[in-house]
User: Which sequence fits this backbone?
């Protein structure tokens, strides 16, 4: 029996039809589609129980009280801690990226010793600690020979570092510049003392002069929560927000009014406002009111218009808003959180005095008890210190850098880095390979915030004394690191000093006890708050008499550095999980984009997309131009956080560093080094 | 689906984003990237290649000086009631057929033809040009919620669908009704993290949910309503110029017409 053609066709057609009725072909297609995407290099997800543990996430300057979500014990995400009254469930964009930062390629993996230009070798912890002790022993007792720069404004680590220095007979303890330092100087000029605070939650009008309070100033998340509470979606707002500053930034975007004020003219703006308020009947019982009134009278609307470009109507509308408010508060600061003078602060704060809001809108925090007996405070910032090193007035033989990046984040950054490089022995306690660590002779890796004990006392801006503390979320750090404070306490003991503690955890527990707080409750995500102290302030008239408005001409522009928290900070390059937040109007490939308004660009002879060079002092910055009508006249806005020379493939060599073109000047009457309001020349390249 | 053929669901998950509260901080974008395991890109400034399931746009009123204003507009997938992407998919990799109205994206089915991207007027869909390669060790910080997608597929926001499943599971465990979740029981990562609470989320058909009233408020609008895609994402702004940019002028074809969404 043979198979004829007809029979063959029948079998084939029947076979094909039959196959289509079975699930085989469809199942196979499905399998192929799944397995064709199932390559070994596609990462698999982690399995295990999902938990959320309270943590103090000190990745942003103020620190966020958060919950770290873990799967099988491994952190993978950060959510807000709704039980914490300060963050109320909010998280800033940097802390939102915290879990991924534990695995950042920029992390220092083990202690490193410099063996040549840009070359390091991994060494054991015992050897690293022995080297540190050896260097400190050699310089012990010689005042001025050992110095320390601390970039952590809120942690008790500062007490240990300054206590250690004092024990070694040295007074060279310096903080990285920040608002707190300047504001405390300002309060002194107003006859008071202590750290000022601002009650945004209790205000019905918040006037931000320079201070980007809803993105990068003070306790950002708490500020944002206070703002949000006044803006129920779909209902009427219960408070007004006004932003007066050089750039239409994130705070200005949601404010009821934005008033463009160039960075060098914020004090003039505040005094012009004071003049209008006094003319409208504002009086103060402050002892220097007459002097203040006479001073403010010089800041007529015409003068203010000359200094700021603001029309009289804008100023008068603002005065009407302030007069209508029951509980206004004025917050003055630099648009990027540092470099402003004390006079800028005093000019803004004097409005609170004039409006009778000291003690309510603007508060003063009492001095907090110390945990470390020998701790001292810093009377000079790191910029002033390094300026002295550069001129030979200071000659330290050893420098301890803790959580700070002075080689990147100080004005005329290249010069600062050079000066740092000339110090004989430098040790950096850093979680990441930042620009300063890359210059140091010894790098001691610090744990990531979710791997360590840490605390935060009175983050700048809080209206009441506030204390937060946290403990590690994970059992073991990802890298071979040790807590810097533990290392310093160990070194102190080997140097024959006793600071009274063996570990940082002990220091923090003692601090909590001294404040009357319960450490366990804090570590579980709680908060301790005290009461602001009473006391009055004068209007700072005698200091304000020295306010001078820096002149710019057609050839120079004022620089307004802009800080977007998502881009990181001085001590943190843009985290890998935040790279998407950088806009195409901010960075293009490796080109930084600077912004100015069309009229300013025309005067400077540049246009949209032009490549330009901004120069000031010895520094230069290369960028492209983007026109933005939200930038004050005569001002160029430059985003902070770019132009990294260390870190990782995601950030290194991207854009340029605005600190390179900031120039330092001495503030009249206060002796402070200031760089907000620096000017630059712009040239097309 | 033809125009007007909006598929009705008893539960319609929707978002109401208050543009007057969004500071543009970017926390929603970061939380989204973390939740959905989007690998960091070395050149994230190349916006033709990045994957931004949630993207915050900057809007400007184009005025200068003290008249200048900007607003930030977070843009997730609109989960349209009548999606343009679904009918064009040749392999049924994207569907709208689950209670809740979330437009799915089935990666193993996706053949990467990108018709859906061309169809989506909100640019909410992204093509995966690269395999998801994380820096060494960072794969230990992957979220257990979302599988990593290979290159060659289109991906998009799904209102953190795993959280929806988990919320339903929890309701079942607690003896509740998984088809009638309480307000706040299910919350996408962006809405959960937003520090100003600009993003509200819930069932826009459920009177018990906050978004029910918010979506019908006088200042609420949706993007490109004239296209009739019936998005499930609503925006709120008291600023007229912001609402005008939402293209809410279907009635007359003139910007600023009073026509409101249906």
Assistant:
């Amino acid at each position: 029996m043979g198979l004829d053609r007809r029979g063959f066709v029948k079998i084939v057609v029947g076979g094909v039809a039959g196959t289509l009725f079975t699930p085989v072909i469809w199942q196979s297609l499905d399998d192929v589609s799944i397995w064709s995407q199932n390559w070994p290099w596609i990462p698999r997800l982690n399995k295990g129980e999902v938990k959320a543990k309270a943590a103090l996430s000190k990745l942003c300057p103020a620190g966020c009280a958060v919950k770290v979500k873990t799967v099988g014990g491994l952190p993978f995400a950060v959510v807000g801690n709704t039980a914490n009254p300060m963050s109320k469930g909010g998280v800033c964009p940097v802390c939102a990226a915290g879990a991924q930062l534990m695995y950042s390629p920029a992390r220092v993996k083990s202690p490193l010793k410099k063996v040549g230009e840009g070359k390091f070798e991994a060494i054991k912890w015992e050897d690293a600690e022995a080297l540190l002790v050896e260097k400190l022993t050699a310089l012990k007792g010689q005042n001025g020979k050992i110095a320390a720069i601390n970039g952590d404004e809120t942690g008790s680590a500062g007490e240990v570092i300054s206590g250690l220095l004092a024990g070694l007979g040295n007074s060279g303890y310096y903080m990285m510049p920040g608002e707190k330092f300047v504001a405390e100087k300002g309060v002194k000029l107003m006859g008071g003392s202590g750290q000022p605070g601002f009650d945004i939650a209790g205000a019905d009008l918040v006037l931000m002069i320079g201070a980007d309070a809803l993105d990068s100033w003070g306790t950002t998340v708490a500020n944002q929560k206070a703002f949000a509470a006044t803006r129920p979606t779909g209902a009427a707002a219960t408070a007004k927000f006004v932003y007066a500053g050089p750039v239409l930034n994130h705070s200005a975007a949601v404010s009821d009014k934005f008033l463009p004020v160039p960075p060098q003219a914020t004090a003039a703006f505040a005094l012009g406002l004071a003049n209008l308020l006094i003319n409208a009947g504002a009086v103060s019982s402050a002892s220097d009111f007459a002097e203040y009134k006479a001073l403010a009278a010089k800041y007529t609307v015409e003068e203010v218009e000359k200094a700021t470009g603001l029309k009289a109507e804008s100023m008068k509308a603002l005065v009407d808003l302030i007069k209508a408010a029951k509980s206004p508060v004025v917050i003055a600061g630099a648009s990027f959180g540092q470099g402003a003078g004390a006079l800028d602060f005093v000019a803004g704060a004097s409005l609170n005095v004039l409006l009778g809001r000291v003690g309510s809108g603007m508060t003063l925090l009492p001095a907090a008890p110390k945990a470390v007996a020998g701790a001292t405070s810093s009377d000079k910032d790191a910029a002033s210190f390094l300026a002295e090193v550069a001129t030979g007035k200071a000659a330290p033989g050893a420098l301890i850098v803790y959580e700070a990046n002075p080689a990147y984040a100080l004005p005329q950054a290249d010069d600062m880095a050079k000066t740092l490089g000339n110090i004989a022995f430098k040790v950096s306690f850093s979680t990441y390979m930042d620009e300063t660590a890359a210059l140091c002779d010894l790098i001691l890796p610090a744990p990531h915030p979710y791997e360590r004990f840490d605390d935060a006392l009175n983050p700048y801006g809080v209206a009441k004394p506030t204390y937060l503390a946290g403990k590690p979320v994970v059992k073991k750090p990802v890298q071979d690191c040790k807590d810097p404070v533990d290392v310093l306490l160990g070194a102190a003991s080997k140097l024959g000093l006793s600071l009274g503690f063996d570990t940082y955890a002990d220091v923090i527990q003692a601090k909590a006890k001294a404040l009357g707080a319960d450490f366990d409750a804090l570590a579980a995500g709680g908060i301790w708050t005290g009461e602001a102290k009473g006391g009055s302030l004068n209007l700072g008239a005698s200091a304000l008499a020295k306010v001078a408005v820096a002149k710019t001409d057609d050839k120079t522009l004022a620089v307004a550095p802009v800080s977007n928290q998502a881009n990181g900070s001085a001590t943190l390059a843009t985290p890998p999980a935040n790279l998407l937040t950088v806009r195409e109007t901010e960075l293009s490939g490796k080109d930084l984009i600077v912004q100015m308004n069309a009229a300013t660009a025309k005067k400077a002879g540049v246009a949209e997309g032009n490549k330009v060079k901004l120069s000031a002092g010895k520094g230069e910055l290369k960028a492209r131009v983007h026109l933005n009508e939200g930038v004050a006249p005569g001002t160029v806005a430059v985003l902070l956080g770019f132009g990294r020379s260390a870190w990782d493939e995601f950030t290194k060599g991207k854009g340029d560093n605005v600190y390179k073109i900031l120039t330092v000047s001495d503030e009249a009457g206060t002796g402070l080094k200031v760089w907000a309001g620096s000017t630059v020349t712009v040239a097309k390249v | 689906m033809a125009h007007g053929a909006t598929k009705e669901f008893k539960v319609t998950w929707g978002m109401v984003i208050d543009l007057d509260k969004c500071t543009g901080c970017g926390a929603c974008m970061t939380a989204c990237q973390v939740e959905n395991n989007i690998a960091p890109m070395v050149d994230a400034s190349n916006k033709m290649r990045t994957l931004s399931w949630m993207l915050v746009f900057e809007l400007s009123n184009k005025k200068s000086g003290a008249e200048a204003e900007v607003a930030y507009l977070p843009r997730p997938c609109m989960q349209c009631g009548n999606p343009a992407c679904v009918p064009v998919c040749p392999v049924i990799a994207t569907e709208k057929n689950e209670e809740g109205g979330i437009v799915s994206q089935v990666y193993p089915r996706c053949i990467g033809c990108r018709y859906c991207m061309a169809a989506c007027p909100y640019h909410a869909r992204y093509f995966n040009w690269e395999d998801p390669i994380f820096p060494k060790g960072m794969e230990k910080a992957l979220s257990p919620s979302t599988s990593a997608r290979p290159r060659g597929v289109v991906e998009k926001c799904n209102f953190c669908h795993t959280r929806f499943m988990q919320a339903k599971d929890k309701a079942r465990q607690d003896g509740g009704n998984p088809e009638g979740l309480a307000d706040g029981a299910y919350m996408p990562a962006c809405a959960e993290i937003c520090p100003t609470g600009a993003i509200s989320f819930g069932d826009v058909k459920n009177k018990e949910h906050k978004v029910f009233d918010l979506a019908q408020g006088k200042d609420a609008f949706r993007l490109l309503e004239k296209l009739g895609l019936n998005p499930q994402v609503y925006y709120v702004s008291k600023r007229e110029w912001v609402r005008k940019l939402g293209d809410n002028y279907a009635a007359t074809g003139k910007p600023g017409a009073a026509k409101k969404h249906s």
Observations:
- The first strand of chain A starts at residue 50 and ends at 57.
- Chain A has five domains: 5-35, 50-101, 112-175+369-457+466-529, 180-364, 550-684.
- Chain A has a mean pLDDT of 94.
